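Hello,

Our lab assistant flagged a job as stuck in the queue for most of the afternoon. It eventually completed. Since we weren't sure the result was trustworthy after the delay, we are filing this so someone can double-check. Below is the sequence as submitted and the structure that was eventually returned. Let us know if re-running is recommended.
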Amino acid sequence: MTELLYYSTPIITECGATVLSCEKDERSGAYKIILDRTMIYPEGGGQPADRGSIVFRPDNSAAEQTVRISDAHTENGSVVHFCDAEIPVGTIVRVILDVDTRLDHAQQHTGEHIVSGLANKLFGAVNVGFHKAADYCTIDFDIPLEQAQLEELERAANAAVRANLSVHTEVTTPEDASTRTLRKKSDKAVGNDKNKKSDKPQNNICEPVLPAKAVRIVYIDNGKIDSCTCCGTHLAATGGVGTILFTDAQHYKGGTRLWFVCGGRATAAVRTVQNIVSALAKQYSTSREELPAAIRKQADELASSKSELREKSRRLASAESVSLLSTAERIKGIAVVCSVMDGSTANDLKLTADELCKKDSTVPCVSLLFAPNAGGTDYCMACTEDAAIKLSMRELCTAVNCIMNGKGGGNQLLARGKTTRTVQKSDCDMLRSYIEKVLKS
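-- returned structure --
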């Protein structure tokens, strides 16, 4: 059984310990080391594990060896440290906490309590899910929260941070916890199997020996901001959170999923956005304040240019279709167009095919158009409704796919596809013969 110093002495960053067991984990390749005491918090309660290292002297030598702790989990009441090297059982070691990682986790976790507690008090929203990753955190609330509510919640959360309110824990029995007014209740136990009762609330301290089933409650401002059962690590006061920044929100399963970051993560997120905005402003030759107007202006100009391009492309496709029809062979009154259009795009093919086979066309037509490109060939086929009685474009596309080793599909009147092959004259001749054979049948 491991003594949990992250509860009994949460501010400790280094401790002495003895190796109780060490075995290799065949799945990960890491060494699973159990110590008699540790300040390394194991993964749990939505919080990732601490990181750190173990220092010892192999075979009582003068030189120290450092083993990295990459992860930690709880197994059978003990904290298992996942390490990159073996340490013999019985070795006296020093355990060193990665303070930056602990601070980051504590900032995010304390921030989550502030946000969840205030969301419940302000809007009656219940936290039904919390996830803390290496670079983001999410809270799932059970009701939809609109933008104005989220902005109010973010302001209230940061006001609580600036007030530097107390954060303290109390350890009690499940029976006592059930009588308290808490935002969230859980019967998760902390401590060890020794049945010594904690007889008074602890301010940021859980005794090293706790009831066999002890419930740990976290209070912020004595419950005015939050009161919740929790087994994670937290700050001593809300001021240490620094800043709470909401980065995104969306409706999720009838409620709201909120993305947020705190402390150092919030500073890094703001810096990233500032750098992006500054780079964009420089690209547009304007100030950051005038950037939205510059982007809107460019968007309007682009929309106008696209409209002009579409009209010019349509006119070009109309002229191209007139030229193709003038030289097309007629099979039983149906014009057959099979052509390679160099320099055209897949969209150009579609526009030309539409013009050749538009609904008000007086000439029955079957068209098969190819456009060579750097990656191979695009193709498009279309026909008028009267020609579709003889030949479906879906069937023609199947034939083209087979000959060109391509992929594509469509319906009776229009189909499209592409291939990595470059279209050859022999391909066109073969497909033209196929079309003529079907139309003559």
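-- support follow-up --
The delay was a queue issue, not a problem with the job. The result is valid. Residues 211 and 275 are 52 Å apart (CA to CA). The first strand starts at residue 3 and ends at 4.
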